[in-house]
Amino acid sequence: MFRSKIIGTGSYAPAKIMTNHDLEEIISTSDHWIAERTGIRERRIASKNEATSDLAAIAAERALEYAGLDPMELDLIVVATSTPDMVFPSTACIVQDKIGARRAAAFDISAACSGFIYALAVGDQYVRSGTFSSVLIIGAEVMSRIIDWTDRGTCILFGDGAGAVVLKRGRVDSGILSTHLHSDGALWDLIHVPGGGSRIPPSIDVLERKLNCIKMKGSETFKVAVRTLADAAWEALKANNLRPSDLDLLIPHQANMRIIKAVVEKLEIRMDKVVMNLDRFGNTSAASIPMALDEAAREGRIREGNFILMEGFGGGLTWGSAMVKW
Ligand code: COA
Questions:
Q1: Domains defined for the chain, CATH in brackets
Q2: Dihedrals phi, psi of 31, to nearest 5 degrees
Q3: Does the beta carbon of 307 lie inside 6 Å of ligand 1?
Q4: Which residue, by CA, sits nearest to atom 38 of ligand 1?
Q5: Phi, psi at 211, each rounded to 5°
């Protein structure tokens, strides 16, 4: 029996910073309102010539360097994204080419903001089964391309970025202890991008009505997020015979500070055990958890033997968790 160990992390955020004050110039909002309701103060925006695979490749190279792994050793690359470079080929194939991982199989996963947890679970299964030994998991998004910059209910929330981890087959006493994935397709319309696919193909009407952009039922999504994140945490803790106080770090999807605080209150976890970077990056969808993990790892907040719970939720509706013993 094998387990997957996270042997490297990496992340990348585009250089351009968009602050809440910048948003005040384009929509009717205020820094105070956004900071109070979401905890977000600024987000990064990709430049015109940066696509998702560009962000993903930099995060991947940083994770490989951290791991000390040659790209040619990779067996599999999985990219979680809702903003792929193209309809096809997959963004993972484009990343494979950019980083020179010529031996690897590569594919994308679509699970919106839960994408990284889904991709991590898939990669973990390949390692546990003994099929693959070295796997690269990436969450990467250029959300700014699917945002309606006139919709103040959504444009304040999202940002661009990428995060990556390298999984390596390892001993059974540490690594990814468990993953749990869930979906409820009946709630598909809470947060979605209606146009541009086979249901409503691209057209001038799609662009005029901004159907190629995110539509969200904000307050309903908020309530479901708190419930699913709390349930996912309890499920992961129970499966590993752990109590909330046993956790060294909680890395939740960085959607909204109030959602995270509500979940933390339910679990009675100390706030200093929670990794939060949404004040600087906003909600980077599938990139948010690996970006936060990388920041924590590089700041020295993670020690060998630590119990780390990562959990996400997002469009689909999808949610899930990964419990790691570092
Ligand atoms: N600036 C100022 N006012 C705003 C605003 C903005 N950016 N966005 C909405 N408002 C206004 C609304 O128009 C409304 O005004 P009204 O009372 O005069 O009608 C008021 O603020 C309250 O709106 P509401 O939508 O109820 O606010 P909220 O407290 O639910 O906060 C969100 C809105 C989007 C911040 C919040 O619902 C949220 O974060 N939901 C979860 C979204 C999420 O995480 N999505 C990603 C899932 S992965």
A1: 3-172 (3.40.47.10), 177-325 (3.40.47.10)
A2: -55, -40
A3: no
A4: 218
A5: -75, -10
